[in-house]
Structures are given as structure tokens and as C-alpha cells.
Write a structure and sequence with these properties.
This protein is α/β, with parallel strands linked by helices. It contains 16 helices and 14 strands. The strands form 4 sheets. An 8-stranded parallel β-barrel has the order 5-6-7-8-10-12-13-14, surrounded by 4 helices. A two-stranded parallel sheet has the order 1-2. The protein has a two-stranded antiparallel sheet with strand order 3-4. Bound molecules: D-xylulose and cobalt (II) ion (CO). D-xylulose binds next to strand 8.
């Protein structure tokens, strides 16, 4: 029985279409900058918001109308929900999905029971993957909802909780491998602190480093070839998350000798919570060869928390695609870690939300590709640094110059050459011009 009988497979109809259940920009097989849109964007639906989101907020309970739910936390309901999820992925033409272990299967009374539940649902997920061709972008473990993780998981003060977390990740990695997951994500959950009086930060970070090394060792042992990703976020639920931003994550990975094994999964709303533009976080990760994947969403300027909204702003998606085209994304994807508003409670709203954001990214891709192809920004950028293309610049960049050499160069001149304009407004106008096309 269909859960979405009023929706057939979403198709591309072009920018003039006013059909809300059609793509206006996302045309999967259209080639842009040498690759199909489908291969550039690798759109991914998240299980947690889309199929487990209740619409609750700190002021009120769930609002979502999900007629396929039977109201129980049974494995049977979870298996049925999995079939509904794949009907959604298929109709939306989304090539990937992503999940936490506890989104897809209910937690049992013991770890063994939880593992058995996960295996039972994973069997259905595998069947559905084979039936539809939809693939798993990444798996992860939820180590933040259960009260046992109140002090964290890999940074907890309770060594038995640490052992539990290790066993949970071990299982989540096995299931991710079994389902052909192309990546495995670690979002810090409750890895951070609320109060420094009760926190041994050095000891907690050492434990986190050990945890990741054990994950790397276990991946080698079972032959899991997926990319490990860390997802930065500065706060929420803790007041200070250890994986605060791309720079903090890379510093951590370098300190603990983990840079060869991890890349970053950059999320828009996490970037802005950290006081950065998404473009900054992407560029910072990209320039160090550590851009792995993105969690595509957006925050609200007027709300100071992680609202996880669907991104519909072309300016934002153009900026994101400018960086993704520069560094590439595979084996990562554009993962919609986004939820419909609690007032948008009907199943059809899930389609509107995803279609709109897929279109926004497809449009951003096309605009960014034209900007890059025409060198519209890069010509002014290289001009801005052209003084470094001189002998003086080359000597500094190649490490040949000393303070004495630079003094000997500049002293006879008495003053440095005149600066040139940064042309910021012109560049912003150029981006708008491409968006107008
Ligand atoms: C939380 C968040 C998570 C991760 C996966 O802010 O973004 O959903 O993406 O654990
Ligand atoms: Co996320």
C-alpha cells in the first residue's frame, strides 16, 4: 500500500513550471561542468528528521501527521516505516539516504537486544536498497539521546559508558558496511562540557583520540572502506562542543595523528552557530584536503539555535556550490539534515521541502559553474595577488627570503607600492548578475 498515493515520481519540468511537485532546476542527467547534476550533488535524505521528526520543540509536543505509524516502538513498525521511507526516496528521485542506528530501529532493554533490532531493520533496508537502487551515503550512531550519555560518550567521565559507546559504534560500523555505506559520520553529540569546574578537558580529549583510533583499527579489521567524517558544531546540546568548527576539528585530528583517516562533514547551521559563513567552513576544510561532505540546511537569522531549516536561498546555495566545485564532494553528498517546520505537518510537506531545496542547490550549481567557467571572480582574485607573482613574491613564497633580504629590498624604496582596490562591491554585483540570468 502506498503511503504517498497522491504523488508520482518527481520529474524535471524546467524553470517555467508551476507544478509544485516537479523540479524546475534539478535535472539529474543534465551535464554541468563536465558531470551530471546527479553526480555533482549526490542528494541525500536523512532518516532522523524526515521519518522520526515529531515536530516537538521545548514548548510543545509532536505535531506531525504520519498515517503509516502504528504508535508503537516495535521492530514491526520500524520495518514498515523503512518501506515507506524508500517509497519517499524513490518518488523524490533521491539517490542516497543517511541514518543513525537508533532512528531506524528501536533501542532494546540491552545492547544485545538493540543490536538484534538493528539487524532486523537493516535486513529490510538492504532489500529496499536493492529494489530501488537508493544507496546509503552514511551511517552513524546516536550517542546523545539515551540518558546514559548525559556526560558524553567518547568523552564521558564514566568508563563503562565509554565501553558501551565503543560497542555501539562497532555495531553501527558493521551495519554501515553491510549496507554499502560510503561514509561513516561522527557528530559530537554530547562530546563537550557544560562546566569547566567538573571537566578534565585534556583527559576527555585524549579519550576521544583513543576512541577514533579504535574506530580506524576496527574499520581496517572488517575491511570497511568508507570515509570517516567528523561533523563540527560549536554548541548545543553542550555549551562548548569539542568539535567546535573546522579549525578546531583539524587541530584535534592533527594532534592525535588522525588526519589521514578523517575528513569533515560541514553543516550550514553549525557554521553560522560558530560565527562563520558556510563558505568559510567549506573553504577552510577544502584548502586542507579535508572537505568530505555537507549537511545542507540553514538557520534563521533571528533565532539563535540549530533550526535545521531547508535551504532555499539561491545566494547561499551559489556560495556553497562555488566551493564544492573547487574541491569536489564525492564520496560525500548534499545531505538534507533539515526538518519541516512543526506547522508543516502533512506528509506532502516533506516533498515540497526536499524539492525546493534540491532545486535551490541545482540552481546554485548552474550559477556557480558559469561564474567559474567565465573566470568572473577568479580573474579579479588573481589580479588582487599579482604583486606576489614578482621575483620578490616568489622568493618569499619559496622560503628563500629572510628579514634582512626584505629590509634590503624595501629600505631604498622608502615606501611600499600603492595598494589597489579590493573591489568587494563590484564582485558582489557580479554574483548578482549571474543570479539574474
Ligand atoms: C546535530 C546534527 C546531527 C548529525 C548526525 O546537530 O547535525 O543530526 O548530522 O548525528
Ligand atoms: Co548534521
Amino acid at each position: 500500500m502506498s503511503a504517498f498515493p497522491e504523488v508520482s515520481k518527481i520529474k524535471y519540468e524546467g524553470p517555467k513550471s508551476d507544478n509544485p511537485l516537479a523540479f524546475r532546476w534539478y535535472n539529474p542527467d543534465e551535464v554541468v561542468a563536465g558531470k551530471t547534476m546527479k553526480d555533482h550533488l549526490r542528494f541525500t535524505v536523512v532518516y532522523w528528521h524526515t521519518f522520526r521528526g515529531s515536530g516537538s520543540d521545548p514548548f510543545g509536543g509532536g505535531t506531525m501527521h504520519r498515517p503509516w505509524e502504528d504508535g508503537t516502538d516495535s521492530v514491526q513498525n520500524a520495518c514498515n516505516r523503512a518501506r515507506v521511507a524508500f517509497e519517499f526516496f524513490e518518488k523524490l528521485d533521491a539517490p542516497f539516504y543517511a541514518f543513525h542506528d537508533r532512528d531506524v530501529a528501536p533501542e532494546g532493554a540491552t545492547l544485545a537486544e538493540s543490536n538484534a533490532n538493528l539487524d532486523a531493520v537493516a535486513k529490510v533496508l538492504k532489500e529496499e536498497q536493492q529494489r530501488t537502487g537508493v544507496k546509503l551515503l552514511w551511517g552513524t550512531a546516536n550517542m546523545f539521546s539515551n540518558p546514559r550519555f548525559m556526560h558524553g560518550a567518547a568523552t564521558t567521565c564514566n568508563v563503562e559508558v565509554y565501553a558501551y559507546a565503543a560497542a555501539q559504534v562497532k555495531k553501527a560500523m558493521e551495519v554501515t558496511k553491510e549496507l554499502g555505506g560510503e561514509n561513516y559520520v561522527f557528530w559530537g553529540g554530547r562530546e563537550g562540557y557544560q562546566c569547566l569546574y567538573n571537566t578534565d578537558m585534556k583527559r576527555e580529549l585524549d579519550h576521544l583520540g583513543r576512541f577514533f583510533h579504535m574506530a580506524v583499527d576496527y574499520a581496517k579489521e572488517i575491511g570497511f572502506k568508507g570515509q570517516f567524517l567528523i561533523e563540527p558544531k560549536p554548541k548545543e546540546p553542550t555549551k562548548h562542543q569539542y568539535d567546535s568548527d573546522a579549525a578546531a576539528c583539524l587541530n584535534f585530528l592533527r594532534t592525535y595523528g588522525l588526519t589521514d583517516y578523517f575528513k569533515l562533514n560541514i553543516e550550514t547551521n553549525h557554521a553560522t552557530l560558530a560565527g562563520h559563513e558556510m563558505m568559510h567552513e567549506l573553504e577552510y576544510a577544502g584548502m586542507q584536503g579535508a572537505l568530505g561532505s555537507i549537511d545542507a540546511n540553514t538557520g534563521d537569522l533571528l533565532l539563535g539555535w540549530d533550526t535545521d531549516q531547508f535551504a532555499t536561498n539561491y545566494y547561499l546555495t551559489t556560495q556553497i556550490m562555488l566551493v564544492l566545485l573547487k574541491y569536489g564532494l564525492s564520496p560525500g553528498g548534499v545531505n538534507f539534515d533539515a526538518k519541516v517546520r512543526r506547522e508543516s505537518f502533512e506528509p506532502i510537506d516533506l516533498f515540497y521541502a526536499h524539492i525546493g531545496s534540491m532545486d535551490a542547490f541545482a540552481r546554485g550549481l548552474k550559477v556557480a559553474a558559469s561564474i567559474i567557467e567565465d573566470g568572473a571572480l577568479s580573474s579579479l582574485l588573481s589580479k588582487r595577488y599579482s604583486s606576489w607573482d614578482s621575483e620578490l613574491g616568489r622568493n618569499i613564497e619559496s622560503g628563500k627570503s629572510s628579514f634582512r633580504d626584505l629590509e634590503a629590498f624595501i629600505m631604498p624604496k622608502g615606501e611600499a607600492a600603492r595598494n589597489q582596490s579590493g573591489r568587494q562591491e563590484l564582485l558582489e554585483n557580479i554574483v548578482n548578475r549571474y543570479l539574474d540570468r
